[in-house]
Amino acid sequence: MEAHRPVVMPEDEVTFRLAQLLLLLDAIASQELDGASLERIGYYDFLSANPFLVVPPEGREASLLRLAGFDPQVLSYASSSQRFTSRRERIQHDLALLIAYGCCHVRNRDAALTYAITPDGRALGARLTATYATSFSTAAAIVVRRLRKLSDKALRDQTVQWLRPVGHNGPAAALLSVLGASPELADTS
User: Fold this and answer.
1) What is the DSSP string of 86-138?
2) Rounded to an integer, what distance in angstroms lies between the CA atom of residue 44 and that of residue 46?
3) Which terminal residue of the chain, N or C, has fewer Cβ atoms less than 10 Å from its own Cβ?
4) Virtual CA dihedral for 53, 59, 60, 62, nearest 10 degrees?
5) How far is CA 108 from the centre of its chain?
């Protein structure tokens, strides 16, 4: 292995992101939703890749996520807010590509654009059989089902809470349990 080779993250690969977005759009359609706004897709996308920000670590859904390979103790949850911002910036570009490929369509519904998977997109998504595709589909189904009834404002407000770095159940809880709370954090928790 060459030490000077750059590390490539899957999220940096357009093909990976498009496949993930197809699986998400399919999960949205499976919840009998007629598409979703760009903003809502951004939330669903990020939270489906990081489902333990939404799902408490105990219970049936948490067990399903663990069986799918997700871990609530992953230390990357501590840097969620930074990753959320950069990931959302790519969604519009990725949706435009899916539209160009005929896998997604956009509609103007009540003066707002909504995006939905097409039959060709569903057919292509069904051909994605990697373990991660199955895992992500499981997480997306859970996340969309949990969040679909929230208003846009409630979804924004709740996401701010999930992305907070401190607190007993915040995303940094796993990091703090490994490293121990610093005096500054202990006072604010």
Assistant:
1) HHHHHHHHHHHHHHHTTSEEEEEETTEEEEEE-HHHHHHHHT--SHHHHHHHH
2) 6
3) N
4) 30
5) 24
Per DSSP, which regions of the chain are E strands?
A: 104-109, 112-117
Cα(159)–Cα(42) distance, integer angstroms: 11
Q: Is 73 helix (H, G, I), strand (E, B) or coil?
A: coil
**8 A C-beta contact, residue 170 and residue 72:** no
Token pair listed for 25: 């759009």
Q: 136, 48 in Cβ contact below 8 A?
A: yes
Instruction: Give the whole-angstrom CA distance, residue 45 versus residue 47.
Output: 6
pLDDT in tens, the chain (189 residues): 556 777 666 676 889 999 999 999 999 999 888 899 999 999 999 899 889 888 988 899 999 999 988 887 764 544 555 556 667 678 989 999 999 999 999 999 888 899 999 999 999 999 998 999 999 999 999 999 999 999 999 999 998 888 776 544 555 444 344 434 444 444 443
